[in-house]
Amino acid sequence: MARTKKPENGTSTARSPSPSRASSASPSSPSGEDKPTGPLSIIISPEDREAIKVNNANATELKNACDDAMKRYLSRPELFKQIYLHTDVRLGLGWLSVFVAAGTAFYGYKVEFEKSKPVVWAGLILYILLTTLQTLYAYFIEGDVVYVGKRKTFSRRIVSERITLSSRTVPVERSKPPAYEVSITYVRSTSGGKSLLAKGKTHGVREYNSFFDEEGTMDQERFERWVGELVEQAMEGKSS
User: So what's the pLDDT on residue 9?
Assistant: First the structure.
């Protein structure tokens, strides 16, 4: 029987592990950017929904019902926080014009007509200017935007997300009934918006009778699933 030869210095030599063992013992590589929570992962019980019923013959009611349902769905605590910038600007301009009109009328009532004319004219011009600004803002800046949401998550770094949804009614065309059209823009970034992580833009159209029955009751679960799919496509950086 052959004997093992010991080293002359009396110390034992440790054998290096084989490449296969070394690779299996090494720690796993760090995972990529955590995927943000999407709408479809949120489970909503039927008890959390209030029944929505509208007049099927009124396209405005149908659109408003869809807009409101979309806002409630995306504004859940696990998803986004709604930003009311457009609404605040319009309300601010509206209230300011009301105060100017009321102040001008009160001044004209208290002061003689000839003496009050310069102030009344100035108030009238300012009122027209504020009303015009409100109209131009609603038409050119806000447009069809019905929802703006933001969210910040903390995973190794601060990640900011912003989502914007616009909607409109596609009118009746020949035999086609009116439809609900929605456009979604999504941006995910970090470092205060300097580093872009994902950007997507999706678009979808569905006829109103896909979500409302003959009595005007809305199938909220079906509507939310459709909106959720569009939102998650945008979150994945897809464009359609």
Answer: 45
Provide the sign of the torsion angle of the four alpha carbons 126, 128, 134, 137, taken in this order: negative
In degrees rounded to 5, what are phi and psi of residue 55? -85, 115
Count helices and strands (H / E) in the chain. Answer: 5, 5
Nearby residues of 12 by Cβ (< 8 Å), 6 or more positions away? 6
Gap between the Cα atoms of 182 and 229, Å rounded: 12
Question: Around Cβ 147, how many Cβ atoms within 10 Å?
Answer: 21
Query: pTM for the full model?
Result: 0.78
CB 123 within 8 A of CB 109: no
Q: What span, in angstroms and rounded, lies between the C-alpha atoms of 187 and 193? A: 9
The C-alpha atoms of residue 160 and residue 170 are separated, in whole angstroms, by 33
One-character DSSP codes across 165-183: EEEEEEPPBTTBPPEEEEE
Q: Give me the mean pLDDT over the 81-88 stretch.
A: 94
Rama region for 191: left / alpha / beta (φ>0; ψ in -120 to 50; rest): left
- On whether the CB atoms of residues 184 and 202 are closer than 8 A, the answer is yes
